[in-house]
């Protein structure tokens, strides 16, 4: 019995040591939900407010290209980085959906950047239908060991939001869940 307990303690110690040494940390708690910690990777710096948003071109669920610079001067863009397997992302989707509907035709284009890859397209297609997702979903792509979109933005965890004004400048960013009034206030600033 004592040896079993010792093995358990050693296993827990090793797991904690590996987690800490590999750079994972809990950056933010999701308030009012069953998901309490949003893991992020230490050492990755999120693109700062006031920075020029890196351009990118990726494909959406319908295999159509989305290029960020094509929105420039026309609309602000809300990028929502998410994963199908991320509980806090699923919690955030109704808010992102509401903002999509509320600001449709009012100067905001909402794009969900999925980090899971095209291999999960069928599951994501079903999820979009079941959840009645109104915003455009695009797939980030791996180029070597780097994500084409997430890495230049410094996405260290999901969900992550970047609000880009009509001039292509990051006006707001957040990792983790965002309070609806805060997001609405930030969107109002860029759609005027």
Give a written overview of the molecule.
With 192 residues, the protein is an alpha+beta fold. It has one domain: 3-Layer(aba) Sandwich (Glutaredoxin), CATH 3.40.30. Helix content is 33%, strand content 25%. The chain is built from 5 helices and 11 strands. Strands 7-6-5-10-11 form a 5-stranded mixed beta sheet, with helices on one face. A two-stranded antiparallel sheet has the order 1-2. A two-stranded antiparallel ribbon has the order 3-4. α3 links the parallel β6 and β7. It is globular. The termini are far apart. The N terminus is likely disordered.
Task: State the share of residues found in helices, binned by percent.
Answer: 25-40%
Poorly predicted runs of 5 or more residues: 1-40
Distance N terminus to C terminus? 67 Å
- Structural class per helix/strand content? alpha+beta
Strand count: 11
Largest sheet: 5 strands, mixed
Number of helices: 5
How many domains, in number, for the residues? Answer: 1
- In the CATH classification, which architecture applies? 3-Layer(aba) Sandwich
Task: Provide the succession of SSEs.
Answer: HEEEEEHEHEEEHEEH
* Beta strand %: 25-35%
What is the CATH top level name?
Alpha Beta
């Amino acid at each position: 019995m004592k040896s079993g307990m010792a093995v358990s303690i050693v296993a827990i110690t090793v797991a904690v040591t590996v987690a800490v040494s590999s750079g994972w940390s809990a950056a933010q708690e999701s308030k009012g939900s069953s998901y309490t910690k949003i893991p992020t990777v230490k050492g990755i710096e999120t693109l700062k407010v006031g920075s020029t948003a890196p351009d990118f071109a990726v494909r959406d669920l319908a295999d159509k290209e989305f290029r960020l610079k094509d929105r420039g001067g026309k609309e602000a863009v809300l990028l929502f980085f998410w994963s199908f397997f991320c509980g806090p992302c699923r919690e955030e989707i109704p808010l992102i959906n509401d903002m999509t509907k509320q600001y449709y035709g009012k100067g905001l284009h909402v794009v969900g950047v999925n980090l899971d890859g095209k291999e999960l397209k069928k599951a994501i297609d079903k999820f979009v239908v079941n959840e009645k997702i109104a915003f455009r979903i695009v797939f980030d792509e791996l180029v070597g060991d780097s994500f084409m979109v997430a890495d230049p933005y410094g996405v260290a965890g999901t969900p992550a939001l970047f609000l880009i004004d009509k001039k292509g400048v990051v006006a707001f960013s957040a990792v983790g869940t965002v309070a609806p009034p805060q997001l609405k206030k930030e969107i109002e600033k860029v759609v005027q």
